[in-house]
Amino acid sequence: MRKQTHILLLLLAAAALLSSCTEGLKPPMLSDTASLEVASTTLPAEAGSAFVSVRTDGPWVLEIVDGAGWASVSPATGMGPKNNVVLSFEANTGVVTRKLRLVLDTGLATASVELTQESGAAPVVGGGGQGESTARPHWLELPATSSFDGLDFFSRSCTIDGKALRNYAYYWDYTNRVSHWVAYPLCRVYLGNSGRSEAWGYDPFLPASKQSNVSGGYKEGDNGWYARGHQLPSADRTANESLNATTFYGTNITPQNNDFNGGVWATLEGKVRSWANSSDTLYVVTGCVTDGAVHYVYDCSNNKVTVPTAYYKAVLRYRKDATIGHAGYMAAAFWYNHEGYPQTFSKNESLSVAALEEKLGYELFVNLSDAVGNVAATNIKSEKPSTVNWWWQ
User: Fold this and answer.
1) Smallest Cα–Cα separation from 3: which of 144, 79, 107?
2) Can you tell me the distance from the alpha carbon of 151 to that of 130, in angstroms, rounded to the nearest whole number?
3) What pairs with residue 315 in β-bridges?
4) For residue range 211-246, what is the model confidence (pLDDT) as tens digits?
5) More confident residue, 96 or 310
6) pTM of the predicted model as reported, rounded to 2 decimal places
7) CA angle 180–351–272, rounded 5-degree value
8) Burial grade of 71 (CB within 10 A; 0-12, 13-18, 19 or more)
9) Biggest alpha carbon distance in the chain?
10) CA distance 254 to 289
């Protein structure tokens, strides 16, 4: 293969010389420098494409050494530096990640980069109303689940700077086509400069027929138009583009009043990020309430999607060296009716986690007692955030 590549490079150089009509032009020389650049070494599970940048002065050949059966590059040959080589890849429907290796050959030098595609068929449970009765151990952000409510628990992982991390978990309602909650850790490692991917699409964990098609926005239902509201905000997952894209899956989106979405709710989301920046980790649960819901919208496949009656957010802050709270932990919660919501953010809408649990009818941060003991967990959940100045600085 190396010999064939070398011959191809010589032919490319000769072709480049023949295509020029400049007198005295020297034939392009094989380059002794080569490098490859990609925005992220992690590819999402769904089918897509990514740009690869080639850095060399002469003719080159770019080859997929591993993964050739599910990925391709275009163009595979060229002359000089090129920033927009397209790597196309098929969806990974398997339960494990898979890798491919790109090799750039200039005839005198080579460079390579290895990329990993996330797994796409790894739900924690199997989509039949058999949600786990207990949450994963040590994941402090998780609420309680049940084996008898017809909902399913899923969790999603991610890779940031080569390190495997959990991304978020959600509790899916097949009837209303919304997640009752999305739970996730938030700290600086998840934040970066990727911006919004706008990659609206299906969640690879579920069949398309079992979720919402949010790619083109919601259609009006019986109560006008609603915006696509993130439960895990896009701005909370900006370490890389593939990570951000997972926040645009339909399982993370609900119909939200646009003024609410861009108003008091957006202000609260910004507050959460600022609290995370002053914490070792902030554990967050964002949820919606469908009890008593009467309004609906249609998705782009004409499926009915329930408009929630209320939204909530609960946060559990941990900082090892904290001088307030209990064992380094403190908590706050917020509840907003979807109609009649306040126009501005204030501590008047805050409540203790224990009070929110009473409204919801299920437990939040179910693994907290394992971390700090029952007494401390009760104190943390019962504390009224309106009396703690740290939240409002």
Assistant:
1) 107
2) 7
3) 284, 332
4) 999 999 999 999 999 999 999 999 999 999 999 999
5) 310
6) 0.69
7) 70
8) buried
9) 87
10) 11
